[in-house]
Amino acid sequence: MKRAMILICAALAAASCSGKERAAAPLAVTVEPVVSALKAGELSYTANIIPAERVDLAFRIGGYVDSVLMRGGRKIQEGDSVSKGTVLVTLRGRDYMDKLTQARGALGEAQAYFDCADKDYLRASRLYGKNSLTKPEMDGATAKFKAAKSKLEAARALVSDAELALSDSRLKAPISGSILARLIEPGDLAGPGSPAFVIGDISSVKAVFGVPDGVVKKLKIGQEAEVKLDAVPGRVFKAGIARINPAADSRGRVFDVEVRIPNAGLEIKPGMAVSVVLGGDGEKSLYIPVSAVTKPDRGQQWLAVYVAEKTPEGYIARLRRVETGGFSGNRVEVLSGLKEGEKVIIKGANLAVDGQAVSVAE
Questions:
Q1: CA–CA dist 45, 30 (Å, integer)
Q2: Cα 346 from Cα 343, distance rounded (Å)
């Protein structure tokens, strides 16, 4: 009996241990993909981010500001997005409506005068053709017709100008983008040319920097570049050379180079300082964060990383031996052992075991 109890207890203990193993949660880890990037060299330059397209929006006409576009119970402000054609600010339109009404009234009078002169001219032309009208009388009818026509054209121009002025009393966004500055308030007296808004399209941004003549000859439009920002550590943004100034700056003797950077996520903001890496020969290599590299055995000199490998049951950690090269910021070049796109563990690698189940956060 005593022996049976011992066996039962042992069986229960074993079952309990097995249950704990099954219930053990996967190790939580953070991963980053292996990326292909230009080899960092001496062709690195600093610049500031500016919008790919910027518009300084100003009034063509003058008047008192009646209203500014409201959004969420407040006036539109810096950082808000607007679509092309959105009315941003409206001047007091009563004065311009009155002018349009007057111009349309004058146009009606000019039209009536022209219609009368036109009839008189046609009748005089028929009579003159039958020798029933003298030459001075014909000349008088012709002069009246021409004057009426000029008056009608002038009246039409006044109506067109009044309509344009009324339309210009509403300032619209000429492009889709973000508000970079609002320089107007309701009640302000705006004059012609008064600045009201600065709008920038930052879905694509650019950086302009100068390079010496020894470098500019190696560059070409469309060449790839990389952009790194202190404000977004660990990220490398792809860019391309969009413009190369053919003439050097007279003071610095450098050639302006412009790179365009896609910014669909709007992470890059105007005014941010960036480092642009051109990569002299355009040669690429694989890079991973330095934090992913580990030494699995203190007695060994080789380095390794843990790769999060996806299986039908989920992710598991796989130890992979790697050969590393030079450094680029907080990243290290990988010469062998990894492929582009593979996910390496950057947090939790020191706790991982080869073949262990892991839960992945990117």
A1: 31
A2: 9
Q: 95: which DSSP letter?
A: H
Q: Which CATH class is domain 44-52+202-283?
A: mainly beta
Query: Is the distance from CB of 241 to CB of 219 less than 8 angstroms?
Result: yes
Residues in the chain: 362
Q: For 63, list phi and psi in degrees, rounded to 5.
A: 160, 175
pTM above 0.90, yes or no: no
Q: Where are the alpha helices (DSSP H) in the chain?
A: 2-23, 94-129, 135-168, 213-216
Token digits of residue 207:
């950086």
CATH of 94-168, one of 1.10.287, 3.30.460, 1.25.40, 3.40.50: 1.10.287
Mean pLDDT, contiguous 10-residue spans, the chain (362 residues): 39 42 74 81 80 92 92 91 93 87 92 93 90 89 93 93 88 93 92 92 93 84 89 86 90 88 90 84 78 76 88 92 79 89 91 91 80
CATH class of 61-92+170-198: mainly beta
State how far the Cα of 41 lies from the Cα of 27, in Å rounded to an integer: 38
Whether the CB-CB separation of 89 and 75 falls below 8 Å is answered with no
Triad 201, 202, 208: Cα angle to 5°: 105
